[in-house]
Amino acid sequence: MRKRIIITAVALVVLVGAYFGITNLNMPQDEIDRTLPDVISIFKTEKENIKLMNIATADFEYAFYAQEDKWAIRGKEEIKLYNVKVDNLAYDFSSINAETIIDNVSDYSIFGFENPTGTPFVALSDGTEKHFIIGSKTPTGSSYYFKTADDDTIYTVYSSKIESFIAPEDTYRERSLAKINPEELIKIQILRSDADIVLQLKTEQESQQGTASLNPWKMVSPFQRDVSSDYFSMNVMEKITDINIETFVDDNPASYAKYGLDKPTYTISFTEQDKQPITLLLGEREDNGFYVKIKDEKAVYTVLESAFGYRDVNPTLLIDTLVYLQMIDTVDAITLSNEGAVYNFKIEHQDENSLYFINGNAADESAFKKIYQEIIGLTLRGIVAQAPQGQPIFTAVFAFNDGREDDIVEGVAYQDRYVAIKINGRAEYYVLKEQVLNMIEKIKAFAENPSK
């Protein structure tokens, strides 16, 4: 039944429309024109004729002028404008229509023209100017009283039109401080009081080298290691967004000290492929954001702190936790010594079935790979603060089949519970001593019975 009612209603609308259409076919043109609403035009020109737009209220005054294919603020040419919005303002000025005309005016003061809301004007390409006066809002609040400076006729004009003529300068400014495309990044730097974190995309040659990490990024400061893929993705890359301005603070500050930008809390730099770096200085906090400026530019802004969700990332967590990681396919041999005992691991790489040996004895492939995981599976527990002293607990020499020189990995006692790992003479990290001793015990057992 409901469907039938809807169909009937639609049919009725169609019939009524057809009736009026047929009726209008027989009406004279002047009768048709009288049925259409009249447009009350106050001012009209081509948008391209407008060369300057001056916005003036009791609180501020500024002017846009045409500068080739874009707009600029007179006297503040360094300010970046959102040209689409300024263009829209020019379109608003180019065609101003009234909602109504106020007739029989006896007292002009009631319309707010003595203390106007705004007095904008435009300068045209022929050298003439057109000045406007914006009065107070109408009682309904949906319109403003409006007139031209050279005519006493009073109109009402919708608020949506008028409010663009009295908007503050910031309304038309570019709010995008920095556009960042994570897919194009080749370098990220976060400099703060406790760390100088530098992350860099690997070169093609580095990516082709035989390391076990599939992450194309590496850390070059404060450590020189591959980054941890998941942590890096979740805590850095996924939090990088375009950086937008919350408020415009000062375009030409006399001092940066009051904003904390003389000694920034953070200096964050992004470099995209084939582009100059974008470097942002973060100063003191302001409400739920930071005072921010671009390096080598004057202006100070506030930006929400959520735009910098990666700023306090832990550099230790950013790197792979395995102290020494190598793909087994790139390793030909490992010679590991401990307290006089020597263990020679050898791999004969073949197309399908490689052969594995320990001290010249054939070894089970699965057992060999398990002990290999023990050797390269030492897990980082902290950063070495002082050079380790004493003889190594173990020394492992890795020989490769990809043209690299041998790596020498040593474990030296560090404090009471740890072992510092030296790689080619350099000690950066320490691991638990218990894990190292456990590894050595498993190697001894494997050498005695390489078939398990």
Features:
single chain; 452 residues; 4 domains; 9-stranded antiparallel β-sheet; elongated; disordered N terminus
Characterise the protein shown here.
It is a single chain. It contains 9 helices and 30 strands. With 452 residues, the protein is of the alpha+beta class. The chain has 4 domains: 33 residues; 132 residues, no CATH class; 138 residues, no CATH class; 121 residues, no CATH class. A hairpin with a 6-residue loop joins strand 27 and strand 28. Helix 8 packs antiparallel against helix 9. The longest helix is centred in the N-terminal third of the chain and has 24 residues. It is elongated, with a radius of gyration of 37 Å.
Based on secondary structure, the structural category is: alpha+beta
Q: Mean pLDDT score, rounded?
A: 89
Q: What is the radius of gyration? A: 37 Å
Percent helix range: 10-25%
Describe the oligomeric state of these chains in a short phrase: single chain
Give the DSSP E fraction (strand runs of 2 or more residues): 35-45%
Can you tell me the overall shape?
A: elongated
Low-confidence stretches are 1-36
Largest sheet: 9 strands, antiparallel
Distance between the termini: 80 Å
Q: Tell me the strand order in the biggest sheet.
A: 15-14-13-12-18-19-20-21-17
Number of domains: 4
In a few lines, what is going on in this structure?
By secondary structure, the protein is an alpha+beta fold.
